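Structure tokens please, single chain.
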Amino acid sequence: MCWDRQNISVTFGRVKFPEGNMEVEHFPVSISDLQDRYYEGEGLTMEERQALANFDSYRISYLKEAMSEEDFEQRYFELQIKSNLSSYTEFLNIG
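Here you go.
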């Protein structure tokens, strides 16, 4: 199957095709997705808000553990990847 990338948009964990008839579950809802929804004024569930709070706490403590600027940059990069690709549910039971 060949996809024309210009005609596909990814929004909140779904790949939407131009016809609008097909949606494929593709990506989990991530911390970044929740942050986008929050800043756009959309309501979040209590669970989603808890995941954001837990991620923020985790992010701060993880970055504080950096021993050098290079280590900090590596950790920051890892956090960006986690916030964009991991399901927000992974952050529900930490804190």
